Amino acid sequence: MAWYPLERWEHLQPFGLEALAMDQKGYRRGSFQSSTSDEDMLEIAGASLDFSMADDDPPLEREMGGFTSYNGGGMNGASKMMDFLEEPLPGVGTYEDFNTIDWVREKSRDRDRHREITSKSKESTWALIHSVSDAFSGWLLMLFVGLLAGSLAGLIDISAHWMTDLKEGVCLAGFWFNHEHCCWKSNTTFTDRDKCPEWMSWSQLIIGHGEGAFAYILNYFMYVIWALLFSLLAVLLVKGFAPYACGSGIPEIKTILSGFIIRGYLGKWTLIIKTITLVLAVSSGLSLGKEGPLVHVACCCGNILCHLFTKYRKNEAKRREVLSAAAAAGVSVAFGAPIGGVLFSLEEVSYYFPLKTLWRSFFAALVAAFTLRSINPFGNSRLVLFYVEFHMPWHLLELVPFILLGIFGGLWGAFFIRSNIAWCRRRKTTKLGKYPVLEVFVVTAITAILAFPNEYTRMSTSELISELFNDCGILDSSKLCEYVNDFNSTKGDDLPDRAAGPGVYTAMWQLALALIMKVFITIFTFGMKVPSGLFIPSMAVGAIAGRLLGVAMEQLAFYHHDWIIFSGWCSQGADCITPGLYAMVGAAACLGGVTRMTVSLVVIMFELTGGLEYIVPLMAAAMTSKWVADAIGREGIYDAHIRLNGYPFLEAKEEFSHKTLAMDVMRPRRNDPPLTVITQDSMTVEDIETIINETTYSGYPVVVSRESQRLVGFVLRRDLIISIENARKKQDGIVSTSIIYFTDHSPPLPPSSPSMLKLRSILDLSPFTVTDQTPMEIVVDIFRKLGLRQCLVTHNGKLLGIITKKDVLKHIAQLANQDPDSILFN
């Protein structure tokens, strides 16, 4: 086990005390020893005896044997003794949907498997080859994940680019060409490169000309119709085939990586539908991005490819290491930022991130970026549409406007989170949530009708960001670059600061209107039943604000270069201010305000722009936006959505500072019925089946006797059901009056009694226990760092109660004056 500095434990490890715990717990190979239970001991909604799994994500241990033995025997030893140790019991040791995995048991199981392979590798050449292939399988899996994620990202980029242009016209040379590719072979001049004869707008195609009011109305109408068609197709596909394909996916992936199981969320149908509908949603012109959903797509690839390798298929903790690396690959292809992807996985989504996962994430991100670069979806040999390069250095005094942009980003981030969560809560609690198709239709119609008249909202958001980041050159024909030119003072490629022409002023008010529209429409768009990322709309808001401030600073420096703030470094005719840099800093500030990322955000931004010398402005803006947003509300958008949906996610970054004890949180409470327990050798099959049918708990403590309440171990409801069913089918003489015992030796009974059933091997003999006087801050730390699902509470060695992960979450919510009943899976 790699040792980390103490301050990194909480962020990196749900196993802070892992090695020590393993030694104390005395794990034995082949026995089912774990601290297992659902995070919610009280309820599994609709629990039944049917454990068939969704085909997306088969149970991990279908082929696992050696967990349960049924040894019946009376006192005289003449009764039939049957041993099913050699037979596999499908389902034992696996998890139900919406349960939390047991990290400690999964890690122990993987160590046992590894130990076995290592010991066998010295016996034969074939075993040695198997050992080497097992060690290499992780890297091979990362290669496959990177290749698949990169290929799908390239496909999504190319398709979205073409379908976005389809709203405005079609290429006569081949309908499959987008506008840019259509005009590549045209003989038009550089300034008229967008008006080539091969590309025809819908009005030119239908009525033969593109000028005049009727042509404008026709183009307007076609734009809205295509937008509605794309978005309706997206929402109908999501609703009909894969409900999990909606939204960003990052809140759910954070929850899954913390150990929660949502079957089908990373399955093949979700992958197929999310890939198709992501293209449709982005092309419809809605205020959303593809970056967040690409992380979900990459994690789906990782989960599906895990089934190729037994090591990852059979172990949920190992699978989560792969998903952490897949998330890095997703960000790598979304932004063309491999290092940023690894840091994003570490800072934002991963719960457990050992050094080995860091290296594998790095490799997966590298392969994914290389694959996307080979596909070259934008035709510019870059991994992203908005790659830019700035040449001018920034001045120390410019830190003031950069920090102002950081403050704006923090304020906007906090405003957006509050507004979006309020709207999403309204969607959940009112009739609005019952009409997802109508909601998407209305929001798309409003977006398309408002977007078309303004050229900065009509273009795709990625193109808008590209335009805003761009540093004006001599050949730029954009309105943002329509300055009053004085070519006598030009030095090389760098144009001096110039007076703004009419085009710049037009662009400014159009951008101001675009900013207002983006700020409000994104609130209603994020969270709809279509794939929707938040990175690009957030960056667009910041980039617009930054460009407006950048142009204002540029004009101020041009007209007042003799002011004291400019006189030292900005002489007349010099190129002092780069408005594109302000747009980039603004984009980073707003994205930081919404997501609360810092390190990964700065790295993603400088990988995007290739500008190493702009790290300090980016850091200043990102840090300021985080401070400002944190002062208004502690949660980032993903954490807020986790809380809104009631996912059982125990945040590792939050401090628990209250002086409560384990006895204040445990159940049963003072007026509750006593804790449901099973005795080790005095209950019949019928008694235990009655307990199972009358309660919905996911596990039961096993005690010596009801009088003594001395703890023996813990047994899972699911394992009891499967074991008893299996014994009734396969073991003769097991009837309702048969005694079930969890001890090594059968209890003394009269010779005439029916066969007994031995279930010791499904008993966890080393459940985690704390005393009733243990401070809750220690209990919370144990839950976080060991990834527990429950721990038992004792007093003077006697069992008192139980604390589950959900109890901890409810207690934290209560202390924060929130509704504790919101911690339910919705």
UniProtKB/TrEMBL annotation:
Molecular function terms, GO-annotated: antiporter activity; ATP binding; voltage-gated chloride channel activity
Keyword terms of this UniProt record: Antiport, ATP-binding, CBS domain, Cell membrane, Chloride, Endosome, Golgi apparatus, Ion transport, Membrane, Nucleotide-binding, Repeat, Transmembrane, Transmembrane helix, Transport, Ubl conjugation
Membrane topology: Multi-pass membrane protein
Alphabetical list of InterPro entries matching this protein: CBS_dom (IPR000644), CBS_dom_sf (IPR046342), Cl-channel_core (IPR014743), Cl_channel-5 (IPR002247), ClC (IPR001807)
Localization of this protein: Cell membrane; Endosome membrane; Golgi apparatus membrane; Membrane
Domain of life assignment: Eukaryota
Record-level GO cellular component terms: early endosome; endosome membrane; Golgi membrane; plasma membrane; synaptic vesicle
Transmembrane regions listed in the UniProt entry: 136-156, 220-245, 266-288, 294-310, 322-346, 396-415, 435-452, 507-528, 534-553
CDD domains for the chain: CBS_pair_voltage-gated_CLC_euk_bac (cd04591), ClC_3_like (cd03684)
Pfam families membership: CBS, Voltage_CLC
Entry annotated with the keyword Ion transport: yes
All copies of domain CBS, residue ranges: 666-730, 756-822
Reactions it catalyzes: 2 chloride(in) + H(+)(out) = 2 chloride(out) + H(+)(in)
Keyword Glycosyltransferase listed: no
Protein family according to the UniProt entry: Belongs to the chloride channel (TC 2.A.49) family. ClC-5/CLCN5 subfamily.
Subunit relationships: Interacts with NEDD4 and NEDD4L.
Main function: Proton-coupled chloride transporter. Functions as antiport system and exchanges chloride ions against protons. Important for normal acidification of the endosome lumen. May play an important role in renal tubular function. The CLC channel family contains both chloride channels and proton-coupled anion transporters that exchange chloride or another anion for protons. The absence of conserved gating glutamate residues is typical for family members that function as channels.
Annotated protein name in UniProt: Chloride channel protein
Provenance organism: Phasianus colchicus
UniProt lineage: Eukaryota, Metazoa, Chordata, Craniata, Vertebrata
